[in-house]
Specification:
Blueprint (H helix, E strand, L loop, with lengths): L2 E4 L4 E4 L5 H8 L11 E4 L9 H11 L3 E7 L11 H7 L6 E7 L2 H15 L8 E5 L6 H10 L3 E6 L17 E5 L14 H15 L4 E5 L6 H9 L3 E4 L1 H4 L4 H16 L11 H5 L1
Parallel strand pairs: 3-10, 4-5, 5-6, 6-7, 7-8, 8-9, 9-10
Antiparallel strand pairs: 1-2
Helix pairs in contact: 2-9, 3-4, 7-9
Length: about 280
């Protein structure tokens, strides 16, 4: 098993570790000084599915940090999207790292987890981010451990109605925590403002306990007050679907999202109703 620590700026591989050794090494990992680097991670849910390889290449050229595949099985959420074969087929078109969010039933996750982990790996076999939902996995510790054992980067997601406490006891096992800021299943939904406090609570837990994980947010995040509020609360990885693909020039969308998030990390938080010009005017 390859052990992996997430340091935001890059993925670091270590010698094989097992069981409690993984948690022990992660909890003693050196913490970053200052804000964690902003990462822009578009979801391909609004992309042209018939041309997915080219869409991934377009996103790479736009300067994104990762590409997210929203895996839906029609059970955990009322929609059906991608299997591991499509994700793996996109690998030859781009060198950008992938992540898969497994919005699937417990049965699907248990039977296909290794396939998704393998399909998510980087061009040289680097660990890809594999995100398991707390609500769908009866034995969440086991699922996260299996992801790392299979060479992936284990991460956990929670839906808007799910209390942060539901993931509190697996924070030592994950590289990322994904806070859903809409109910999963469909793109184009509005950000749920009460999720901002949940982000802040989880970030404080990580800081207080010396744990090394990024916080991702997914749902209704755009180049406006939404990404600013999330960044100020402690998120540093931002999933943008319709918020990215609304731009004809994807590089402009990537740049605007990053600019607003980085400004918020420095204390200049874009207010609701203002646009990017507010940052330079103040």
């Amino acid at each position: 098993m390859l052990s992996l620590l997430s340091h935001s700026a890059g993925l670091v591989l270590h010698a094989p570790l097992h069981g409690n050794a993984v948690a022990a090494q992660r909890s003693s990992a050196p913490q970053m000084a200052g804000p964690r680097p902003v990462q822009i991670i578009p979801s391909v849910l609004p992309a042209d599915w018939a041309n997915m390889g080219a869409e991934c290449k377009r996103l790479e050229d736009a300067g994104v940090d990762r590409i997210q595949f929203d895996v839906m099985d029609g059970n955990f959420v009322p929609n059906l999207t991608f299997g591991p074969e499509l994700i793996a087929a996109c690998r030859k078109y781009t060198k950008v790292m992938f992540e898969t969010q497994l919005m699937v039933s417990n049965y699907n996750c248990e039977t296909m987890l290794d396939q998704y982990t393998e399909a998510t790996k980087g061009p040289k076999g680097e660990p890809g981010v594999v995100i398991a939902h707390v609500e769908a996995n009866v034995h969440l510790h086991r699922t996260l451990t299996k992801i790392r054992e299979a060479g992936g980067s284990p991460s956990v997601a929670l839906n808007p109605h799910t209390p942060a406490e539901m993931i509190e006891n697996v924070l030592d096992l994950v590289d990322h925590v994904l806070v859903m800021t809409v109910n999963p299943g469909f793109g184009g939904q509005a950000y749920i403002p009460t999720m901002t406090d949940k982000i802040r609570k989880i970030r404080k837990w990580g800081d207080d306990r010396g744990l090394d994980f990024d916080i991702e947010v997914d749902g209704g995040v755009k180049a406006d007050w939404t990404i600013a509020a999330c960044a100020e609360a402690g998120a540093n990885c931002f999933i943008a679907g319709s918020g990215m693909f609304k731009y004809d020039d994807l590089s402009v969308g990537c740049s605007e999202l990053r600019t607003i998030a980085e400004a918020a990390q420095k204390g200049k938080v874009l207010p609701e109703g203002k646009d990017l010009s507010w940052l330079s005017a103040e």
